[in-house]
Amino acid sequence: MPKEFFTVGALLYKDYDLLDVNGSLRMLGSLKANFNIITITQTGEHVTSFTPQIANYINYNFENCPDFDILFIPGGVGTRDELENSVFLDFIKQRVPKVKYVLTVCTGSGLLAKTGLLDGKKATTNKLVWNWMTSFGPNVEWVRKARWVVDGKFYTSSGVSAGMDMVLGFISDIYGKEEADKVALEAEYQWHDDPHWDPFADKLPGTVDLSTIPS
Amino acid sequence: MPKEFFTVGALLYKDYDLLDVNGSLRMLGSLKANFNIITITQTGEHVTSFTPQIANYINYNFENCPDFDILFIPGGVGTRDELENSVFLDFIKQRVPKVKYVLTVCTGSGLLAKTGLLDGKKATTNKLVWNWMTSFGPNVEWVRKARWVVDGKFYTSSGVSAGMDMVLGFISDIYGKEEADKVALEAEYQWHDDPHWDPFADKLPGTVDLSTIPS
């Protein structure tokens, strides 16, 4: 395995999806010698996820956050508020040009799309709220049937659990398929290693509006 | 859906597995009207998971923790230390008789087994470290090929990602299959809804000793 080492900056916000964050980061962090992960919120305080009362411990705020190599943006019901939060979107805009990779899960793709930085790129997002979400990136080449999509330094995934498959795909691209298979096997996880595998594109009509889901 | 409401006490410890905890709790917490979840460590301080520097926010310590209905015990590399921690094992012993259900993921089953409270019960655990782990419960009826096992109030699962399947099984048992299917679908998660599905029992020989894995 190459010795390439990355610091990952995970950008959290109120009502983020707990599995988006911790499923993906757990797979990345399995290669302990290759990744350090820091958590960031706007104020540096912890924010509760959409799972009642559960939160991740937070390391940095937008002011004191150091440079990192990979920007990680999860999705979640809270996306609907951050789409209107210019401070949050500005943080993404400032950091994207400085990082080697951007990984977004679920509706995190919509937050990135809203900044305009995905314009002209291929990407995917959550299938339940597809229509609403993709409306924030009218110039993005949205790929509806995909577990995850890679375009240059941008990795975007479908909803929630797709983040784990995408991150295993990222590990495979950087360190080789054997490493990704090993991480999945030792987590007793059935990795969907084909980025075109996506039964949910057919099962979910994509017509739910996230702003209608109760807090 | 019945209106049965549960408070879940999630028992964390240093080097717990991040997905064991947050994958399972995310599935449970999808039924927001039915679950509240509290996090507990021995001292009430947060502890880092085995994923570099990532931690959950903690609500209670062993002294000030209120009653709860479901005891949730995750696995992780840190199990090896807690197996020798009598204060930790005593907390489990005191709480198990008071709760309606006990849910353990991965090597969390070994922690429960070490207390003797699984004696004579059917249970399963992680397949990578099977031999080492089951040695802590010589009087447990260990079921090697199983995604999860139910015996009375005890739900035990195989390694890491199996926790999500088990919790969906628990939701199905309490609230009906339709509810569990909906949670899985909206998380774009391919639920393995057959508790006998377990390809990892054959793929992993079970001969790894957790105490040999570097910190």
Automatic annotation (TrEMBL), chains A, B:
CDD domains (alphabetical): GATase1_PfpI_2
DJ-1/PfpI domain location: 14-171
Pfam families, per database record: DJ-1_PfpI
PANTHER family noted in UniProt: ARAC-FAMILY TRANSCRIPTIONAL REGULATOR, THIJ_PFPI FAMILY PROTEIN (AFU_ORTHOLOGUE AFUA_5G14240)
Descriptive protein name: DJ-1/PfpI domain-containing protein
